[in-house]
Amino acid sequence: MLLPTTVLREEDQLRLQTTVDALVRSANAKVVFLVDKAGQLIAASGTDSSLDTTSLASLTAGNIAATGGIAKLLRENEFATQYHEGKDAHVHIQVVQNRVILVVIFDAKSSLGLVRLRVRKTSDELAMIFDEISRRPPPGHEGSPFAELTDQDIDNLFSD
User: Fold this and answer.
1) pLDDT level of residue 120 (50, 70, 90 thresholds)
2) Which domain holds residue 54?
3) Per-residue pLDDT averaged across 79-106, rounded?
């Protein structure tokens, strides 16, 4: 999950956008969105400019939250993958490392098999990017002599 203190730098945003752009092409998708679990759009790519991206992002996050409730009732951690099939449009939703939501909208020009294959590869790429981002010190702590200290180190220092 992206923490409220997570800061995406310009180069992070570019890497995420490049990854989403590549998925649109490789999966032959109409649109791809990357959304955080709070419903904020992180990156988008594709050709359907008539979509309300703000609504889609927040509704997708709500859908993931609701499905998480169902998963808990069934004693599952989560349902990381969802698929919705419509008459003309299909939606594949993938939760990546419980951090972000990858949404792929496609039509008959693609197939669920191709989308699933490409999403799996893209999820691995996104996981690497977000792992790198999460390992960075929080803003303002770069170069701090306390940046390497953990809560356990502080507890050990003050324990008897």
Assistant:
1) very high
2) 10-158
3) 94
Distance CA 105, CA 61 (A): 15
In this structure, is residue 3 part of a structural domain?
no
Specify if 4 maps to a domain.
Answer: no
Give dist(CA 115, CA 32) in Å, integer: 11
Q: Say if residue 160's pLDDT is above 80.
A: no
Query: Domain holding 135: CATH number?
Result: 3.30.450.30
CA-CA distances (angstroms) from residue 123 to 51, 104, 139, 152? 23, 12, 26, 32
43: left (phi > 0), else alpha (psi -120 to 50), else beta?
Answer: beta
Is the model's pTM score more than 0.70?
Answer: yes
Q: Please give the Cα distance from 104 to 83 (Å, whole number).
A: 10
Structural domain contains residue 149: yes
Domain total of the chain: 1
Bridge partners of residue 31, in order along the sequence: 46, 105
